[in-house]
Design brief:
2% strand, 2 strands, 162 residues, mainly alpha, two-stranded antiparallel sheet, 2 domains
Amino acid sequence: MSATMAAIFWVISIAVPPLVGDMIVPGIDVRGDFLLWVFLMLVTFIFVIRALSDALSLADVLTDIFLRRLGAKEDRSLKRVGRDAIYIILTILLASALIPFLSYVAEIGNMLAGAASLVALGLIIVLTYDIGRILYRTLETRTEVLANRLAKLAKRSRKKKG
């Protein structure tokens, strides 16, 4: 529902402001079409935030289902890796969708697009680091368990021979 409302307000923000024309709002000396566009984009942004929140909670549920089908136990670290991977994909999709629109903003569009791409890059780096850290820790503990089993097996074989 939130995504639908965001799309509706985005279409309205494209179609309605030109109808206002070059009317100047008295007292603040701002063009009416620009003020209306800013208001409609803020409302759109609020609905996009709500839609992303809904999508993240849905992604958490889908990740749990997917990891259970892969045979992962109730291991929180593996679930977190799956969630981080989904968040990376969502970050890439969101950034690639927003950057063209941000570049059209007058005078500061290129800076906004650059800032959005840098923020997306930062999020991706942090999430990738988190994935690497979790996988390293998981692999380290499982390797230690395997090494301990092999050491016990070697001790048993030495006792049988000696």
